[in-house]
Amino acid sequence: MLTLHVADGSPESAVLVDGARLAAVGPYEELAAAHQDARLRRWPGILTPGLLNPYGPELLEQTYHPDPREAAEFGTEPVTGERARALFRADPARLGASARRGVQRLLAHGTVAVAGELTGRAAQDAVRRAGLAVGQRPPNLPGPAALSPTPLVLLPRLAAGGPARFAVFDVPDRAALVRQGAGTCVATVLGGRLVYRAR
Model's pTM, two decimal places? Predict the structure, then answer.
């Protein structure tokens, strides 16, 4: 089934999704007129190609993402440094669950690709199962390993025939996205599937 995604702030870059591929990219009015049978998903903000997070190993193998049930013990924010390493040494089984929760955090920040060499099976499996693309690290990293507001590495333009992989941010334009950060994500699509939707 065809699905037409459009964001109110970028109607000129609507996308028509057919399975895991982009069937067309263009102005919403043109795509809607040509594909009246397509299911419509309308979003606030802007539709973008999504983000590459260049810190895959740091966020998925060296950071512990607590389960919400562990909030009393660890809080709700990612645990880094020696404390995270000690948790993984004490219980290596934590790596898999942490990597899966880390991937969910990435998706909630409009991440559609990660970079950096993932050496552990748990992180590799979490990335593969989610459908995240794996890319190259940029030559100049954009700051410390983080989810939001940095790094903010936008991927190249969407194109017909390419993978149906994109994110929508509730901001008026890209400049506002840079200022406000990836926490403004309202939807992330990978392989044509809506893998994150803000409540």
Answer: 0.90
